[in-house]
Amino acid sequence: MAETAETAEAQVGGIVSAQLRSLIERIERLEQEKAETAGAIRDVYAEAKGNGFDVRTMRTIIRLRKLESADRQEQEALLELYRAALGV
Amino acid sequence: MAETAETAEAQVGGIVSAQLRSLIERIERLEQEKAETAGAIRDVYAEAKGNGFDVRTMRTIIRLRKLESADRQEQEALLELYRAALGV
Amino acid sequence: MAETAETAEAQVGGIVSAQLRSLIERIERLEQEKAETAGAIRDVYAEAKGNGFDVRTMRTIIRLRKLESADRQEQEALLELYRAALGV
Amino acid sequence: MAETAETAEAQVGGIVSAQLRSLIERIERLEQEKAETAGAIRDVYAEAKGNGFDVRTMRTIIRLRKLESADRQEQEALLELYRAALGV
DNA sequence: CTGCCATTTTACCGGC
DNA sequence: GCCGGTAAAATGGCAG
Model's pTM, two decimal places? Predict the structure, then answer.
């Protein structure tokens, strides 16, 4: 066996370090992607504004639609909960 | 006039300090009140559970009702927005 | 005896339903109260800001004060914050 | 020419409406994409946690890395974090 | 004790 | 260029 205890430990530290680096780089890549998508959204709003639409109103519409969809999902969840509670 | 510049400055610092203390104490008092209300809510859930109700279901119902009310409010806000936009 | 089994059951269902409604309303009332207190807290922060205080620093002070069992390091941070806040 | 003024106006309204719908759908699509990327990030954090890494520390590291113009103090904090993370 | 959900804090974006 | 408000991230608390 060629490695002393310290060397083995160093290897483990190296491996852990490499894992950490890999995870962090993956996250940073994804965050960049997310930022780009956010940029694209901003561009669409800007385009809309350029075509005379009111951004504030658009945001309200989109928020409302999201809310309605969340509402529907909740209703389904509640129904499912009742279903389970009643052993149907 | 009895005060040197330094003394006046110290007075100002003292006043600012007293203001800060007062504001912080008000906030802490309100936060305590909020915590107490949160405790009361927990108690009601505990009571409900003791009477055989399913807490999870109750939470879902309450969340849904809040969502519905938020939805209604948003719809009104949207209407109001349109109203304003059209100069009615 | 005037009630059939089904009627009695329906009564029980009605009572349970009323209990549930009552519990939910109590919780909703308390949550509203809690929201109002939260609003009051926001108002105090707004007032503080209006008087030239830094809200972020105040939040930090309050958070640190909540940790009554603050270790030495936190005490130092608190001191440093006061120092900075008062421009000493 | 077959269209009255009102009809032409209705057409314009229809076109505006279609434009608005298109813009909103584009935004909603992009927001969904953004949400999916956010989900992927959460997954990576979960994986990291599963491999024994401390998520809070990782978040701090990533935040510090984002501040490319980190001053010396931050660099020291980063070093300290790595040191703690690797148990040196 | 783990995962989920609510709350709180931070960051961003539009408006003035 | 700043302010205010709104959405996202992060932390803390609670149920299971």
Answer: 0.82
